[in-house]
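Please annotate this fold before class:
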Amino acid sequence: MLYQDMFKEKHDVEDIAGLIKSIGPMDINIMEVCGTHTMAIAQNGLKEILPNNIRLISGPGCPVCVTPAERIDDICSLSKYKNIIIATYGDMLRVPGTRREISLERSRMDGADVRIVYSSMDALKIAKENKNMQVVFLGVGFETTAPATAAAVLEAFEDNIDNFSVFSIHKLIGPAMRSLLDAKEVRIDGFLLPGHVAVIVGERGFGFLAKDYHIPGVISGFEPVDIMDAVLMITMQIARGSAEVENEYTRLVKKNGNIAAQKVIDEIFDTCDDLWRGLGMIKSSSLKLKRKYSKFDAALKFGIEYSFEQKPSACRCGDVLKGLIEPEGCNMFGRECTPDYPVGPCMVSSEGACAAAYKYM
């Protein structure tokens, strides 16, 4: 009851930091698995505000960053086909493939028709307006963006659009979290859970943390006070020896999530094993189109055979994504690898841990 009473009296991040410090000297590692949290933590200097015994670790929370370089090679190869338009979110444009000179930006400079879109529906609109071209939408993101991709596929199916397809590299955050906990390469005492994903999957989507791993997790919003609240809630759980999934972001996240969004994902996609940058193959961690909608699967349509073997790289984005090192622990950080000349995706993406560290260091 003492901590609960104190919790009600907090006012700002400094007050909350004081409450966290008062709980005790336990060393606690808390991993965030959301790139927006990573950027907010860096921008607001929250690591410096927290007591030294509380360590925030960035995990695989950026969907652009966890896309393996081999998939970038695949989509860049596809962009060279005649009569193909690649429609992509802007974050993917400069992500390098297995070699630094491979990227959609370089493909566009070499004459490929690569267009930045803000939604899957923008890509579908391009297909409707260019019936003599094949439009391939690069579907990237976690559960947050998958419903929009699914809705575009459903509309294309209902309208019998033949020149639209999706190169799906959508991923699911839950299996990645399981993979990290099972590997035990880094000690994780609690998770700062992603608010955007939780809007879709709800509190129930993270129930496995407490049930299977006895690890506390708190769904958090994105304001500094939200994040600090969540860290306090995790610290309080650890102090009393409990492990629950709690919801700090109650203004948007409900227990069961967005049922309509879950239904459209289940209608369009199946899960599949897939490769994650740094984490390797993870079972049932990605989304592929169901057989009913296979005509919209760009990989099948254009005969792309996925590679599931990652090539070694001097870039240590993979270790950053696993929480093994801070971005500054990579010898390339700030030297050969900068936002202007990125070697890895963690320096490219607006949600990447390396980009955040570079911008706010």
Summary: The longest strand covers residues 280-289. The radius of gyration is 21 Å. Confidence is low (pLDDT under 50) at residues 1-5.
